[in-house]
Amino acid sequence: MTTLSRRALLGLALFGALGPTCFAEDEITILTQQDVLNDYQKFLKGRDPLGITFFGGEHSRRDVVELVLVQQALKTGGNTRPVKLVTVNNTSDSYNRYLKEVSTGTAALGGNSVWLVDLKPLSDKVYISEPSIRQGEFNAGLYTIAGNKQALAAQDKAAVQKLSAVVADSWKPDIATLESIPIKNVLKTQSWDSMVGMVAKQRADVILAPFQPTPDLSFEAGGQKFLPIPNIKVGLQGSRHFFVSRSYPGSAQLAKALNSGLDSLRANGTIERAYKESGFFNANTTNWTKIN
Q1: Which value, in Å, is the radius of gyration of the alpha carbons in the chain?
Q2: 153-208 pLDDT, tens digit each
Q3: Domain locations in the chain as residue ranges
Q4: Choosing a second label site near 180 at 20 to 30 A (CA), which of 26, 41, 164, 212?
Q5: Which CATH class name applies to 139-235?
Q6: Any idea which fold 8-135+238-285 has?
Q7: Residue 265 near residue 184 (C-beta atoms within 8 A)
């Protein structure tokens, strides 16, 4: 969808060319995307991420609070190595690039959770953490632009099935979810920017997106306001996990600290509270109809 140093290497469009030897051996590099880092810095407003206890507010969202959670988990699990945030720029293939940079050891770990289905093929290259989002916890809305009256009026499963949807072709759980409804006209493209652009131009009706912490659950992208179809939600199958590169120095100890910290944050309620306060676990949609 997010993070004891808050300095980051910005604008690394060719980040993949950098290897782990570019960083101090005792330093942990946490990878995220540039747009997430931007919102994370706005969310923190100079605060120490280790001291965050309320995860709501302006610029909060799932990816942002995950970047905070992963740092708190490492600290809670006993990590004492300094942390640096690094970025991979948003591109049409940024999700796969994100996976590659960590799995090859360019960065120590990913600062945002990833679907287990995408991590399993990399299990010989990465340590997979305990789930941050468990099976059945990921609910999303079908978002459209405010001007698409037909989509916003789709108040049951049959009406939703008649709409068109667009999804990135590498987003396997999203594709499976749309096909399970089933929305028969599912268009595929390469990036989030392309997805929102197609809906803005009404070349497609809806996209899947997590519910937002705004009063009307809306978000803005590409100069357009996107709203969820009221009273309709869908459940994405699978769990999401953080992951640590096996080829990064001290990776086994790092993975152990991460898992220990996540267990502690789960037990004391921090993980659930973070997702609730960021709007990802959204109380306003509790009674909405799940159509898949």
Answers
A1: 19
A2: 999 999 999 999 999 988 889 999 999 999 989 999 988 889 999 999 999 999 99
A3: 8-135+238-285, 139-235
A4: 212
A5: alpha beta
A6: D-Maltodextrin-Binding Protein; domain 2 (3.40.190)
A7: no
